[in-house]
TrEMBL record:
Protein species of origin: Bifidobacterium criceti
Protein name: Glutamine--fructose-6-phosphate aminotransferase [isomerizing]
Any GO CC annotation of this UniProt entry: cytosol
Entry's localization field: Cytoplasm
Alphabetical UniProt keywords: Aminotransferase, Cytoplasm, Glutamine amidotransferase, Repeat, Transferase
Domain named SIS: residues: 42-181, 215-360
Oligomeric form and interacting partners: Homodimer.
């Protein structure tokens, strides 16, 4: 059932183009507009939404963090993202105009389920983004947007993550369309960029694995890794750090690159591997220059730089010891490709150490206790 792959994780990473494609295509009508008839929330209720709170745990919460950047930009309403277990026990402010989006691959995560029950008790509507048909979380929600990633067997979540981002983007663009917050042309352009992503992920899968494998060999003895990113690269850094600790049992920390000088740079010592998610360079992306200056700072302290960057990025070529390339794409789409080499890196490092990548120690695929 691994279809020729030596682990489910490997197979599932390679299913990412299809996961995005399947999650996207059923939701576009012939004119290229988003059709969410499947979501049983009244248009009036949707239009009245004045705040979104995304809840989830682990990888699902990072997909929510990515979505925050996009949805706030498109819809111009505040989006909060919170770990479900923290949200549940802190008396959050919820009204009938708050839309709570519960993201869960399994649909059985007890922390997320308890949080959504609490939100509904307070009168808010809950929309689930879920990969498992008929699971508890979609059953107890007001509406559901399924991710069509297909069953995910490996404990470490991979294809579900890209499908969750895709589904959340569809939701955001739908709200933008409904609220007239963004011009139709811009929505169509953004959808075109999204439609191009399966091919771009495929490019990464076709070209980058040998680089990642070499990197895993070179880094086999490293005791700890830092992961840094800004904007949507920040949750990608957190996800990269989570993957590596989950399956390779390596001590990792992910943080916002802007935080470096506020503390974490003290950790940087000769040879410390530091992974940077470098935003696209095209146009006047001010964040690109800021991330590059972060790279310079840690390089000057002897760090070993691993970068995920846009093909042909000359600044990155100057400083990085290892580069995983991404094809050109808009910044908001970049998480869909940038996470791929980080998933592969975690997998390769775990395999090198002889660990079972599909069944890491101490972890279960779905966490059904609080
Ligand atoms: C990471 C991972 C966990 C899950 C988290 C939420 O690889 O597997 O962090 O993402 O337990 O699980 P779901 O999405 O099933 O609610």
């Amino acid at each position: 059932e691994k279809g020729g792959w030596d682990s489910f994780m490997d197979k599932e990473i390679h299913e990412e183009p299809a996961a995005v494609q399947r999650t996207l295509f059923g939701r576009l009508d012939e004119d290229g507009n988003i059709n969410l008839d499947e979501v049983h929330i009244d248009e009036h209720d949707f239009k009245a939404v004045d705040k979104i709170i995304v809840i989830g745990c682990g990888t699902a919460s990072y997909a929510g963090m990515v979505a925050k950047y996009a949805i706030e930009h498109w819809v111009r309403i505040p989006v909060e993202v919170e770990l479900a277990h923290e949200f549940r026990y802190r008396d959050p402010i919820l009204t009938p105009r708050t839309l709570v989006v519960a993201i869960s691959q399994s649909g059985e995560t007890m922390d997320t389920l308890m949080a959504l029950r609490h939100a509904r008790e307070q009168g808010s509507k809950v929309l689930a983004i879920c990969n498992t048909q008929g699971a508890s979380i979609p059953r107890e929600s007001d509406a559901v947007l399924y991710t069509h990633a297909g069953p995910e067997v490996a404990v470490a979540s991979t294809k579900a993550f890209v499908a969750q981002i895709t589904a959340a983007y569809i939701l955001g663009l739908y709200l933008a369309q409904l609220k007239g917050a963004v011009f139709r042309d811009e929505i169509h352009q953004t959808l075109d960029s999204l439609k191009a992503m399966p091919q771009k992920i495929q490019w990464v899968l076709d070209t980058q694995p040998p680089r990642v494998a070499r990197a895993a060999e070179q880094l086999a003895d490293a005791n700890s890794f830092l992961f840094l990113g800004r904007h949507v690269g920040y949750p990608v850094a957190l996800e990269g750090a989570l993957k590596l600790k989950e399956i390779a049992y390596t001590f990792t920390e992910g943080f916002a690159a802007g935080e470096l000088k506020h503390g974490p740079i003290a950790l940087v010592d000769e040879g410390e591997p530091v992974v940077f998610i470098v935003p696209p360079e095209r146009g006047r992306n001010i964040l690109h220059a800021k991330v590059i200056s972060g790279i310079e700072e840690v390089k000057a302290r002897g760090a070993f730089i691993i970068a995920v960057a846009e093909e042909g990025d000359k600044d990155v070529e100057r400083y990085a010891d290892i580069i995983f390339w991404r094809p050109q794409c808009p910044t908001l789409m970049s998480p869909l490709v940038d996470v791929v080499p980080l998933q592969l890196l975690a997998m390769d490092m775990a395999k090198q150490k002889g660990y079972d990548v599909d069944k890491p120690r101490n972890l279960a695929k779905s966490v059904t206790v609080e």
